[in-house]
Design goal:
This protein has one domain. The protein has a two-stranded antiparallel ribbon with strand order 1-2. The protein contains five helices and two strands; from the N terminus they run αααββαα. It has 128 residues and is α+β, with helices and mostly antiparallel strands. The longest helix has 16 residues. The mean pLDDT is 81. 5% of the residues are buried. This is Reverse transcriptase Ty1/copia-type domain-containing protein. It comes from Spirodela intermedia. InterPro entries: RVT_2. Pfam families: RVT_2.
Length: 128
């Protein structure tokens, strides 16, 4: 590969960004994440936020029904200059185990970004 790729033409800031990618470990399992204090701390914050927002209620499982599982998704977020901004984790439902019309509507939670809402409001104002 060394014969085909070279870092010579890259800017110093982009080289630094590429090198930082090698130093950040993205966990593949919860055990791996819990062994790193950064990821563990952010996971605790995510659980606290989910509990604070009353995201779910614990109820008995109806007979004959299966639990929809969940998993952690780990993503490092970077600034425009390539430096690490923050660690981000999300606890997500394993949607592939859901059945449409049975448990799909209870789990789906659409999220709109603020920029999307601003664009829609701007379009609505310009149509008048």
């Amino acid at each position: 590969m060394v014969n085909y790729l070279s870092y010579d033409r890259l800017t110093p800031s982009y080289k630094a960004f590429l090198m930082s990618l090698k130093t950040i470990i993205i966990p593949k399992t919860i055990e791996e994440a819990l062994s790193h204090k950064e990821w563990s701390h952010v996971m605790d914050e995510e659980i606290d936020a989910l509990e604070k927002n009353c995201t779910w209620d614990l109820v008995p499982l109806p007979s004959g029904k299966k639990v929809v599982g969940c998993k952690w998704v780990y993503t490092p977020k970077y600034k425009a200059d390539g430096t690490l901004e923050r660690y981000k984790v999300r606890l997500v439902a394993k949607g592939y185990s859901q059945s449409f019309g049975i448990d799909y509507f209870e789990m789906f939670a659409p999220v709109a970004k603020l920029n999307t809402i601003r664009i829609l409001i701007a379009l609505a104002v310009n149509l008048e």
